[in-house]
Amino acid sequence: MVNFSLFNFLGPEMIVVFFAILLLFGGRKIPELMKGIGKGIREFNSARSTIESELKEGMKENEKDS
């Protein structure tokens, strides 16, 4: 059976990825990069929760009308 997992990394692969990131961005840019990724994840989660609450509210209104 073939595993098509996108993020199926093991130890050696993670080390190679880490060094590639270190070479591309340098040691000083990595904290800024991580901060930007964290901010993007927070914004995504905020938008997701807003959409979820709007959908739940719409479903409640639809049940009241029925």
What does this structure look like?
The protein has a domain at 24-66. The radius of gyration is 20 Å and the shape is elongated. The protein contains one helix and no strands. It is an all-alpha fold and 66 residues long. It has one helix spanning 11-65.
Largest sheet: none
Order of helices and strands: H
Portion in strands: under 5%
Please work out how many helical segments DSSP would assign.
1
The backbone outline, from C-alpha atoms, is elongated
Oligomer class: single chain
Report low-confidence residues grouped into runs of 5 or more: none
Mean pLDDT: 84
**Number of DSSP E strands:** 0
Short characterization:
With 66 residues, the chain is an all-alpha fold. The chain has one helix at residues 11-65.
Q: What topology emerges from the helices and strands here?
A:
Layout: H1 11-65
Note the main attributes of this structure:
mainly alpha; 1 helix; 66 residues
